[in-house]
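Quick one: structure for this chain?
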Amino acid sequence: MSSKTNYAFDHSANTLASHETRTVQNTSSYLIPYLKPGLRILDVGCGPGTITVSIAKLVRDGHITGLETTSEIVERAKALAEKEEVSNADFTVGDATDLPFPDHTFDLAYTHQVLLHVSKPVDVLREMRRVVKPGGLVCAREAEMEGWIIYPESAQVLQSRAVTSEVIAASGGMQATGRNLHVRAREAGFKNEDIKKGASAWLCTEPDERKSTGHAWARRFTQSEIATKALNRGIKTREQLESYSEAWNQWADHEDGWLAFISGEIVCRKT
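Got it. Here's what it folds into:
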């Protein structure tokens, strides 16, 4: 992730707990067919390292490097790799708009739900393209913030998603979302014929997953940077944010709760 990113979700314990449920299998299965033996891979905006480590396990004779903006998160990712006895992953602090690697270093560069938050996503994609070898791949997956479907229908939950988008946009983000990733890739130097476009849905229906997801979102509207920025910028009042939090808690506890959202995906070949 870029050091110039004003990350709306912060790295609080609540956010990290949510992100630590992510693996390549449950968030980026589109990537798995491209994970070949011996690859050298870069994970831009690796967070606590769970996706990075899951990729490392699939390319045991290869290597993956995870990049994040803060040493605290990097150390957390390193601890996870050590705990999982993964030796073919390393982690470093860096800026996605100025990657600390020479040209043509990696076979594949990957990012997940990062471009949404940066003010210059094309710069990030251009840097990812630079550090990939000729013939290599740049892959990205980003949420489509309007592509949420929820049951029981809740106007307040859907309004809370709109508030999240407003906060991200006010911080300079929302320049790249699922629907326009292919356009941003072309602006970064990829040819149309070298961009494979796709989409997938994340589905939350199981009771434990529903409860953890819903209660995590509830806390975001009272105990996170989203709440702080929404208040400080006059986007919403405290009472409105508390009503969103309560709506998420109610959804989390509803036995028929069902949630899906769409993300766009790109796989770009450097020619």
